[in-house]
Amino acid sequence: xxxxxxxxxxxxxxxxxxxxxxxxxxxxxxxxxxxxxxxxxxxxxxxxxxxxxxxxxxxxxxxxxxxxxxxxxxxxxxxxxxxxxxxxxxxxxxxxxxxxxxxxxxxxxxxxxxxxxxxxxxxxxxxxxxxxxxxxxxxxxxxxxxxxxxxxxxxxxxxxxxxxxxxxxxxxxxxxxxxxxxxxxxxxxxxxxxxxxxxxxxxxxxxxxxxxxxxxxxxxxxxxxxxxxxxxxxxxxxxxxxxxxxxxxxxxxxxxxxxxxxxxxxxxxxxxxxxxxxxxxxxxxxxxxxxxxxxxxxxxxxxxxxxxxxxxxxxxxxxxxxxxxxxxxxxxxxxxxxxxxxxxxxxxxxxxxxxxxxxxxxxxxxxxxxxxxxxxxxxxxxxxxxxxxxxxxxxxxxxxxxxxxxxxxxxxxxxxxxxxxxxxxxxxxxxxxxxxxxxxxxxxxxxxxxxxxxxxxxxxxxxxxxxxxxxxxxxxxxxxxxxxxxxxxxxxxxxxxxxxxxxxxxxxxxxxxxxxxxxxxxxxxxxxxxxxxxxxxxx
Amino acid sequence: xxxxxxxxxxxxxxxxxxxxxxxxxxxxxxxxxxxxxxxxxxxxxxxxxxxxxxxxxxxxxxxxxxxxxxxxxxxxxxxxxxxxxxxxxxxxxxxxxxxxxxxxxxxxxxxxxxxxxxxxxxxxxxxxxxxxxxxxxxxxxxxxxxxxxxxxxxxxxxxxxxxxxxxxxxxxxxxxxxxxxxxxxxxxxxx
Lengths: 539, 191
Fold this sequence. Notes:
The complex is a heterodimer.
Chain A: E1 30-31, E2 37-41, E3 51-52, E4 59-60, E5 65-68, E6 77-78, E7 83-91, E8 101-108, H1 128-137, H2 150-157, E9 163-167, H3 177-200, E10 204-210, H4 214-223, E11 229-234, H5 243-251, E12 266-269, H6 271-282, E13 289-295, E14 303-308, H7 313-319, E15 327-332, E16 339-340, E17 354-359, H8 377-381, H9 388-396, H10 400-405, H11 416-420, H12 427-500, H13 505-526
Parallel strand pairs in A: 1-14, 9-10, 9-12, 10-11, 13-17
Antiparallel strand pairs in A: 2-8, 3-5, 4-7, 5-6, 7-8, 13-14, 15-16, 15-17
Chain B: H1 2-22, H2 32-39, H3 53-61, H4 73-84, E1 102-106, H5 116-120, E2 126-127, E3 135-136, E4 156-160
Antiparallel strand pairs in B: 1-4, 2-3
Helix pairs in contact in B: 2-3
């Protein structure tokens, strides 16, 4: 039992939306019935195609490795349940609207056999490399949202961080997956944290949690026996969970936008990731399921469920008692940061922490926006101290350069500005588009710079080629001239020699004619029956 | 008598030091032509009537019109106008129309390997050898159109560039109901 420490800094702004957390915390973590089909993504975004270890029609066991990543950052994927592989191909995922990634579809079979596991590792005996390889083999990626491969993050942190932060601040309304996990499995989470402390060489672990999860706090305090662990309870305020903000609040260090916190001596992990690390290392369990919140007014039985990776959203929602008549839309994630699901066939993946199936009454569509009245509320709540109102004007007038000069790119997309706007202007949506346009402009500029470089190189090459050609031509011409001159000189000498000593051309012809006559005469002399000779042969 | 002289000497010395320190750290500033060139899209297509973007930049610096660049379009004209303090004018239709960015694509089965497009490409974005198939490195292609005309078998198409390159009209606000994110105002959230 340890007493909570106080935060080192306060977050600027932020909002206090209704938490709506108790709906999903009424029950302990439950299991969903086995879905008939699982769609398991085997490829990470931006990674090459993985090495597939199974083919269509193959029978797979629970926990069997389906694919091994090829890239430096790629991780393995495992079968969440026993069954038969029916399809391998690109499938859409909940976190993007366009395209998809390679997924393996498994028709599941009820099977009592336990999961095929890797042998447990002894964290003291095994070296760093073996530990990281285990994280990779067990398919562990960040479960907080970004899905960054954990082994790569830990590798970057080895020897460079002195603080490990457990980001248990689930600040978005409705989501309670981490709180439920900490309530029931705090010991495993802390075990995972101490493994990472040992590997990275960090000396302390700060657990940041909001005061709206008292049961999780109590459970954490009970499990904390180590002096290296400190609990830090923050007042509930959105968006405490953004990594850079949490690092600032807990340690007082400000991490610039776009830089990893590791450069500032801090490694930040989600409790679910630490839980998965502990299970993978100490028990050899690959990451085949995760705790997620299935909630919203359209569900009769909202709660936290241990869901197999690859369960289709529709199946999961049906199992929680989806009221089709009331249901208006589903969001992957919370109401502020979530993405609206376009189709219910997408699978739940490692980064899905919440599916919010709402009704029109619970989460109405925003009313049409009104003109800005310059109240300044947006600037008051912006946690990164931007001026959303000003940025909005720049966006409207198409002055992206000015918006960039006002640090548009530091916006963390939290949506606090849009939440408080009395004119219901879709500020954060506009900023998202603006950032996309800005990124596109930057990419174009890079492409233009490259094209200029290549054009200049091309010009230089053509010029060199022309110069060389010209030089060669001149050389050839000079050579020809020299040869001609030499030939001319030779004829000259020959002529001179003939003119001085040899007989004149007329004499040569006369001599040749004489030789021919002589030969003819000799022929005639050898044949006496022939006609008499017309001329006399010379002697 | 000595102290005023000493003071004057000190003042002069300090003045010299300050003058040295006040000199800007980066003395080399881009010339006007380079500044203009940086705003041009570097397509090197020659639609402006100049053999490349740099010559056009030089011409603009000497007073040529700023509305002769169709690949740059409105945006480039606006930026040039701001840089040169000139009026924003619409694109001169004589030089072409503004369109989405494109990349060249060689229908490889039809290519006879004449190397004519290789010589035409201003950024060396086509690879190939005599009597062998050619192909376009699409990441390097500027969509300048210069390789299409010399091709004797017309096997080069200009296709729309991948979506990341499509210009985004910056004045469009998101359509109502566009699910960019699920962010909604919290009114109606029940507790």
